[in-house]
Amino acid sequence: MNHSPAPIVYLRLRSRVRMIQGQDLHLGDVAHLLTEPEWEKDLLELVLKRPQKQDGNLILVDMLQIISKIRDHIPGVVIESLGKPHVLVELVERPRKPSKILFVLVWLLLFFGSALTIMNFHADVSMMEVQVRIVEMITGQKDEHPYLFQIAYSIGIGFGMIVFFNHLFKKKWNEEPTPLEVEMYLYQENVDQYVVAEEYEKMARLQPKDKKP
């Protein structure tokens, strides 16, 4: 194949990607790149790795490994790297059809777990006595079972949770991330940093062995 002189390739790695087990890992799966149009398709289809079972379900792909692959494929290429120097590849099984029974069981677990948590909290802070006292202060009469106040309070809890988590089923009120999404993002970032550090340590331990004749 005749190509023009070796191009300049601007390369930016994604932070984390998922791919189906048993598939080849291509450069286009893990990176965004900008180069001459005649080289772009060829580079996007460049095979970086063929994952094996012994690799586990998380693979660290380092920028140096990618640069080496690209230079083997296009001698003399100039590579400009942007962003992170590595990407984590998570190998997953092919998606399965969701189980309705499992969905119902999880829903029931969350429903009753949340209900018990709220009830135990209210028992700890003597919420019943507080509500009776509030109603007595407002109406001037003591009511041992202020159902109207409790119904309004329960509706307020539900409405407050919807506003706080910025979600009603799949609908979001705005693009601002919810506190749960932020916490999940921070947790995932910490996990990724740990995995990257572990993978680099493994690579450092294996490197001297590779140099032995």
Automatic annotation (TrEMBL):
Name by which UniProt lists this protein: Stage V sporulation protein AA
Species in which this protein is naturally found? Paenibacillus jamilae
